[in-house]
Amino acid sequence: MNFHDVKFVLSVHSERQLPTEELPEIAFAGRSNVGKSSLMNALIGRKSLVKVSGRPGKTQGLNFFLVDDSYHLVDLPGYGFAKVSKDMQNSWQGLITSYLETRQQLKCVVVILDIRHEAKPTDTQLLNWLGQQGIPCVPVYTKVDKLSGNERGKNARLLDAGHGIRQEDRILFSAKTGQGREELIAALTKYL
Ligand code: GDP
User: One of this protein's Pfam families, by short name (predicted)?
Assistant: First the structure.
């Protein structure tokens, strides 16, 4: 993974708009405001190719980014924002669920969790559901720069226990300091 050339390709709002290319895809999922855009920007080494959201909960599509003409990174809309109506939550589920269930090109999903927060049921549901579908998943605990070393370890263990995640399977990340970037690249490279 070099990220020499990264382009925004398109925003998908219905299944028929999905790209027909057979390139492998890696998707990124997380609650609104978890730091998903910041993580993706830090990963690809661009300041703001992926929009950092000032307006959580707005209607969004699945945003496709083409990397070095060889694979797609797919930014899934954030979920679980309290002020979003039930209808919007359902429409998130409809398109995303069918994308995750049926997309042959999808190689793995990076599930992003805020290291400061306790295990939330919607995150557990997503992680369990991905497991049931047999979709490989890379859990990332982000914003680790916001906690001291002690708290970081303690919170990481709470999230591990809450979600049934093994310590060796998750990555501690900070979009601010770049911690975890190389580890994430190594984990994703295995799926490409
Ligand atoms: P998204 O809605 O999941 O895409 O979240 P954003 O990437 O827009 O981030 C939400 C807020 O958290 C923004 O104010 C970011 O600057 C901040 N943020 C995201 N990641 C980090 C991080 O690793 N460290 C710190 N300190 N702040 C972060």
Answer: MMR_HSR1
Residue-range domains of the chain with CATH:
6-189 (3.40.50.300)
Which residue from 6, 97, 82, 13 is spatially nearest to 45, judged by alpha carbons? 6
pLDDT digits (tens, 9 = 90+) for 19-49: 999 999 999 999 989 999 999 999 999 888 8
This model of the complex carries an ipTM of 0.99
pLDDT tens by residue, 46-85: 888 877 655 544 557 899 999 999 999 999 988 765 555 6
Strands of the sheet containing 137-142, edge to edge, are 6-12, 62-67, 71-75, 25-30, 106-114, 137-142, 171-172
Cα of 174 vs centre of ligand 1, distance in Å, is 9
Ligand 1 atom nearest the C-alpha of 38 is 7
Atom 2 of ligand 1, residue of closest alpha carbon: 33
Q: Do strands 6-12 and 62-67 pair parallel, antiparallel, or not at all (unpaired)? A: antiparallel
Identify whether the C-beta of residue 29 lies closer than 8 Å to the C-beta of residue 112. Answer: yes
Residues with CB under 6 A from ligand 1: 30, 32-38, 52-53, 56, 78, 142-143, 145-146, 174-176
Nearest CA to ligand 1 atom 9: 35
**Do residues 43 and 74 touch, judged by C-beta distance below 8 A?**
no
